[in-house]
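re the bet — no i am not wrong, look at it urself. input seq straight from the record:
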Amino acid sequence: MTGFHLAQVNIGRTVAPLDSPELAEFVAQLPEINALAERSPGFVWRMVDDEGADATGLRPDENDDLLLVNCSVWESVEALRNFAYHTDHLRVLSRRREWFQGRAEAYQALWWIPAGHHPSVAEAMERVAMVREHGPGPGAFTFRNPYPAPAEAAQV
């Protein structure tokens, strides 16, 4: 165990407002998927809005009511990958094109944080911007191009 955890953010622009019929199935599954994340091995923390159930009330861009942010913290890339691609989360993920507009630019970033730190929306958006502007690197990367935690990198 290192003194670092993995933060992840993904952003997406919905095809319609959250309270629309088009998003009803997605919204209905949020409590189940959030509970699944919290029970998953390696889960540490997830961002929530003032209501405390999920992050759907947060707006990373005050001029875009359709842009949502999801941010969480995990013990490792492997723990996050297992949750994202080897649990019922995959069922929801596989339907993302029904609920979210396609993106030509990066919409996800992973980065290492000191254990105990909880990223802000601004910090998460900065990491997405880093991937967009510079590609994956040690400060912000993707599942396809992961970087080791800083303590692990120092031992190499």
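see?? Helices lie at 24-39, 77-86, 89-93, 96-99, 121-134, 150-155. told u. also The two ends are 16 Å apart (CA to CA). so pay up
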